[in-house]
Amino acid sequence: MTYSFLRRLCRPLLVLGVLSSSFSATALIHEYRNLLPYSGVPQSMEQRDKQGNLVIPAVYIDMGAWHGFHLPNDPAYYGSFTGPLFIAQEYSLHLSDSLQRLKLRNLQTGDYLDLASAPIEHIYSEPQGLVQQFQWADVALETRLQYSDSRTAIITTTLTNLSDSPQQWQLTWSGQPFNRHPHLPKHAVIAQRR
């Protein structure tokens, strides 16, 4: 009888505790925006300063992954997440400047949308991922990078029509790995056929 009474008494307290912690966790997420300097675009496979440190000071890695990404600080890379960087024993290597550069083409006009022209732009990191948001008068774009496990980073792209008229957009992603290591020319990422 005592166990039953305690169970009935604790159940509402547990629900209140879960609700209050989820509200406070959501509020705290905004306090942790841009906590680390994840911004940068790698220029080569191994870009280091004179002390041997990576030029881009931080890389976003989650879920125990051995690869990570950066936020773009160059408008030419807006909409993409730069990298990835692979942890390779004691030396980390960038595979690419960006393997998934996003381009948006309006199929009604044939014009490409310049993400740097967005009047409203938010590029930031949060504990659960990297986020880029762009908004114009008639369309909004959000792209997020989050990890689902130690081997998989998922990029979600959402395009929202803010006008009353139908729109047609073509979204394409492109990218390629770096061809050579800057100091070890014999170390190619992809072998060239002759």
In angstroms, what is the radius of gyration? Answer: 22 Å
**What sort of overall outline do the alpha carbons produce when their principal axes are compared?**
globular
Largest beta sheet, briefly? Answer: 4 strands, antiparallel
Give the distance, in angstroms, between the N- and C-terminal Cα atoms: 82 Å
Instruction: Report low-confidence residues grouped into runs of 5 or more.
Output: 9-21
What does this structure look like?
This protein has one helix at 2-31, and strands at 67-70, 82-88, 91-94, 101-106, 120-126, 129-135, 139-149, 152-161, 169-174. 15% of the residues lie in helices and 32% in strands. It is an alpha+beta fold. The longest helix is centred in the first third of the chain and has 30 residues, at 2-31. The strands form three sheets. A four-stranded antiparallel sheet has the order 5-6-7-8, with no helix packed on it.
Kindly summarize this structure in a few lines.
The protein is of the alpha+beta class.
Topology:
Layout: H1 2-31, E1 67-70, E2 82-88, E3 91-94, E4 101-106, E5 120-126, E6 129-135, E7 139-149, E8 152-161, E9 169-174
Identify the notable features of this structure and list them briefly.
alpha+beta, four-stranded antiparallel beta sheet, globular
